[in-house]
Design brief:
This is ABC transporter ATP-binding protein. Keywords: ATP-binding, Nucleotide-binding. It holds the Pfam family ABC_tran. There is one protein chain. By secondary structure, this protein is an alpha/beta fold. The chain has a domain of about 110 residues: 3-Layer(aba) Sandwich (Rossmann fold), CATH 3.40.50.300. The chain contains seven helices and nine strands; from the N terminus they run E-E-E-H-E-E-H-E-H-H-H-E-H-E-H-E. Strands 6-7-8-3-9 form a five-stranded parallel β-sheet, with helices on both faces. Strands 2-1-4-5 form a four-stranded antiparallel β-sheet, covered by helices on one side. Strand 1 and strand 2 form a beta hairpin. Helix 3 packs parallel to helix 5 and helix 4 crosses helix 5. It is globular and about 45 Å long. About 40% of the residues are buried. Bound molecules: adenosine-5'-triphosphate (ATP). Adenosine-5'-triphosphate (ATP) binds next to strand 2 and helix 1. Adenosine-5'-triphosphate binds next to strand 2 and helix 1.
């Protein structure tokens, strides 16, 4: 699924965070949102995932203007197409690995609920093989990040949005996460990543740079 920001402007609490930002994220490619701290990477990622609605401009999903969508259409998008790997990973610490991988599907009563073979396969792929029954709270930071990726794989999401997926990971774990996300893109998914990580940026097919709005050249936003 192609996700596109078309001249998107975002004002939060009276402050302009970004103005007339445009970007096309295509299937089969990993797009990295890059820029200094505070440039709006997380905000743009949330806009592209329909978690935020822009103040101006449009966000398009396969050409459809999502800014006109109501709650029901947005929920369908999250249910059927999107998976998020956000900064807190959205992991339920007191539940098992298996529950965390399958939960979005079971919450939305998707048809893949309870597919043991599929669960095992995605855990193998993410290096969590055989750990179904372990409590998520016992996993390391890197393992939790991979658990969030396992959830996206299990769901077979077309659009994967990840916020700093390699932050605070050691080299080996960071490399594994980058390889997993790059392989999801190679399989034809639309992968969008907000990142500071040079290695993650180099692995991306497209880099989209954001400047802090106040640092932007004069004339921008006027
Ligand atoms: N709810 C909010 N209300 C007001 N300002 C906000 C809100 N959320 C974010 N901002 C501001 O928007 C700007 C962009 O924030 P954002 O988190 O998108 O940047 P970022 O590039 O992801 O930063 P970092 O690399 O530090 O995570 C920042 O100046 C931030 O303070």
């Amino acid at each position: 699924m192609q996700i596109e920001a078309d001249q998107v402007t975002m004002v939060l609490n009276g402050r302009t965070i970004m103005e007339r930002e445009s970007l096309v994220c295509v299937p089969g490619a990993m797009t990295a949102l890059v820029g200094p701290s505070g440039a709006g990477k997380t905000t743009l990622l949330h806009l592209l995932g329909l978690l935020l609605r822009p103040t101006g401009g449009r966000v398009l999903a396969n050409g459809a203007d999502t800014t006109t969508w109501g709650a029901r259409q947005r929920r369908l998008f999250w249910k059927n197409y999107a998976a998020f790997i956000l900064q807190d990973y959205g992991i339920m610490e007191e539940e098992s690995v298996a529950f965390n991988v399958t939960m979005t599907s079971s919450l939305f009563r998707s048809k893949v609920v309870g597919d043991e073979k599929r669960l095992k396969a995605v855990l193998m792929e993410t290096g969590l093989g055989g750990r179904e029954q372990e409590l998520a709270a016992r996993l390391s930071g890197g393992e939790k990040r991979r658990l969030a990726i396992a959830r996206a794989l299990y769901k077979d999401a077309q659009v994967i949005l990840a916020d700093e997926p390699t932050a605070s990971l050691d080299d080996a774990n960071g490399k594994h996460v980058i390889e997993l996300l790059a392989s999801l893109a190679r399989q034809g998914r639309t992968v969008i990543v907000a990142t500071h990580d040079d290695k993650m940026m180099r692995a991306a097919d497209v880099q989209h740079s954001l400047a802090r709005f106040s640092d932007a050249p004069k004339g921008r936003g006027e």
